[in-house]
């Protein structure tokens, strides 16, 4: 941990949690069934709690969430992708929760400033991963229609997954190779059980998408931020 | 995160609104002569804002109380879930109770380490949960902090998974229950249904 680079790592992890939390919150009032709406909102709440701790390590949580421009966010491009249909949301959850659980597992066992939060959050994320896996099985091994949609969603988001294994400044003590291997094994196993195929095509390299950790984001992110930040910017200091 | 909550309109304990029968001049509030153990007991008696049948002590979220040199009191609180919105209400409730007992300077800190677990809920807390219709969490501290698999029914090619320790309906005690949703009214609960008495119920998830 160094004073100059650790805030960047806190921003990266905090922005992942914040942005995905907001995306999941967009399901409120739109989820297919009430139980699922409650589930997605609960996962969003867990992520928001993580984001608050992580962003507070890097500065003022509200300023960071509401007053930064798009290029200052350090989240993965994966988490900013629109909800799409329910299958897209579940594919995004599967990819991200598997990554987050493995990453937090490593951080919890380490000695960095993230160890405490990671030890706490990894237990919550285990439920997020379980939720995503169960739905992947349900949709992939469900009807022909749900199978097709889940297949399409997994393929569409695949190109955003390579970015998860790129180095993050200030995130010490993470074995990225082990992270990647474990992620591929876990996701591959779930997709197999769900009768889905592991998507082909470049996940890393010239064709891959993803430079969110460098502040480069996809088009839908700007619109998401506009909505997320609108109230705070229009009414600074507003409270309930 | 540090939550130095300061209620906007605290009524000073030294000026009760009801007229005192005693003619003696107003005495300064009792100095915090209470011991740390007594303060811990007081703070621990505060009911949980979301599950008021439980006290904070029974929930196991109160970590420590320290008395500083100038009589200031510092309370350490740990959240059940990182994003638990009840933490702020807990903090202000603790402040209010300690203030009523003459403590003037209170700060409540949130600590994350060691992480809270449902194993921290006391036996008395578990009994109260069951009595109020919530199935208490099963023990987790045995092998690893892995989630208890909450498996839905079979699909086209999957024929369900073997059950672990059965979870019992808090109303009729039947072990024949099914999962409706792994997330319920709050992040810490799952929604289940009893197949014997047909009643839905909340289950405090193992964490």
UniProtKB/TrEMBL annotation, chain A:
GO BP field: phenylacetate catabolic process
PANTHER family: 1,2-PHENYLACETYL-COA EPOXIDASE, SUBUNIT C, PHENYLACETIC ACID DEGRADATION PROTEIN PAA
Transmembrane residue ranges: none
Cellular component per GO, a single term: cytosol
Pfam family, one: PaaA_PaaC
NCBIfam families attached to this UniProt entry: PA_CoA_Oxy3
Organism: Streptomyces ruber
Lineage: Bacteria, Bacillati, Actinomycetota, Actinomycetes, Kitasatosporales
Domain of life: Bacteria
Protein name: Phenylacetic acid degradation protein
UniProtKB/TrEMBL annotation, chain B:
Originating organism: Streptomyces ruber
Ranges for domain MIP18 family-like: 44-107
Stretch list, region Disordered: 1-34, 136-163
Stretches with biased composition (Pro residues): 7-32
Residue ranges annotated for the PaaD zinc beta ribbon domain, each copy included: 161-205
NCBIfam families linked to this entry: PA_CoA_Oxy4
Pfam families associated with the record: FeS_assembly_P, Zn_ribbon_PaaD
UniProt protein name: Phenylacetic acid degradation protein PaaD/phenylacetate-CoA oxygenase, PaaJ subunit
InterPro entries: Fe-S_Maturation_MIP18 (IPR052339), FSCA_dom_sf (IPR034904), MIP18-like (IPR002744), PaaD-like (IPR011883), Zn_ribbon_PaaD (IPR056572)
């Amino acid at each position: 941990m160094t004073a100059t680079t650790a805030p960047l790592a806190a921003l990266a992890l905090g922005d992942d949690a914040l942005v995905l939390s907001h995306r999941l919150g967009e399901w409120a009032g739109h989820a297919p069934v009430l139980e699922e709406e409650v589930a997605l909102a609960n996962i969003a709440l867990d992520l928001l709690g993580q984001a608050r701790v992580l962003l507070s390590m890097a500065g003022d949580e509200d300023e960071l969430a509401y007053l930064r421009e798009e290029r200052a966010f350090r989240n993965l491009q994966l988490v900013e992708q629109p909800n799409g249909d329910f299958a897209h949301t579940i594919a995004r959850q599967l990819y991200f929760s598997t990554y987050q659980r493995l990453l937090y597992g490593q951080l919890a066992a380490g000695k960095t400033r993230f160890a405490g939060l990671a030890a706490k959050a990894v237990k919550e994320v285990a439920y997020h991963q379980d939720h995503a896996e169960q739905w992947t099985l349900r949709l992939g091994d469900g009807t022909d229609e749900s199978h097709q949609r889940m297949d399409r969603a997994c393929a569409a988001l695949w190109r955003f997954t390579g970015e998860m294994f790129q180095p993050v400044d200030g995130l010490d003590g993470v074995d990225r190779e082990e992270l990647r291997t474990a992620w591929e094994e876990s996701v591959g196993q779930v997709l197999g059980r769900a009768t889905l195929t592991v998507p082909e095509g470049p996940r890393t390299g010239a064709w891959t998408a993803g430079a969110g950790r460098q502040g480069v984001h996809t088009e839908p992110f700007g619109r998401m931020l506009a909505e997320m930040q609108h109230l705070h910017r229009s009414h600074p200091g507003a409270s309930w | 995160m540090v939550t130095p909550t300061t209620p906007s309109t605290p009524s000073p304990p030294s000026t009760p609104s009801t007229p005192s029968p005693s003619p003696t001049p107003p005495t300064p509030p009792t100095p915090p002569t209470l011991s740390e153990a007594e303060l811990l007991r007081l703070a621990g008696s505060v009911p949980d804002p979301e599950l008021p049948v439980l006290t904070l002590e029974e929930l196991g979220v109160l970590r420590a109380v320290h008395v500083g040199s100038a009589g200031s009191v510092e309370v350490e609180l740990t959240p059940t879930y990182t994003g638990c919105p009840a933490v702020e209400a807990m903090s202000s409730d603790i402040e209010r109770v300690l203030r009523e007992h003459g403590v003037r300077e209170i700060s409540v800190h949130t600590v994350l380490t060691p992480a809270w677990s449902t194993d921290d809920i006391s036996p008395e807390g578990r009994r109260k949960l069951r009595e109020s219709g919530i199935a208490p969490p099963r023990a987790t501290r045995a092998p690893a902090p892995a989630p208890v698999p909450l498996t839905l029914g079979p699909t086209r090619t999957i024929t369900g998974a073997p059950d672990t320790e059965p979870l019992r309906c808090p109303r009729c005690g039947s072990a024949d229950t099914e999962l409706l949703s792994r997330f319920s009214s709050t992040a810490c609960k799952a929604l289940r249904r009893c197949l014997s008495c047909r009643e839905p119920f909340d289950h405090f998830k193992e964490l």
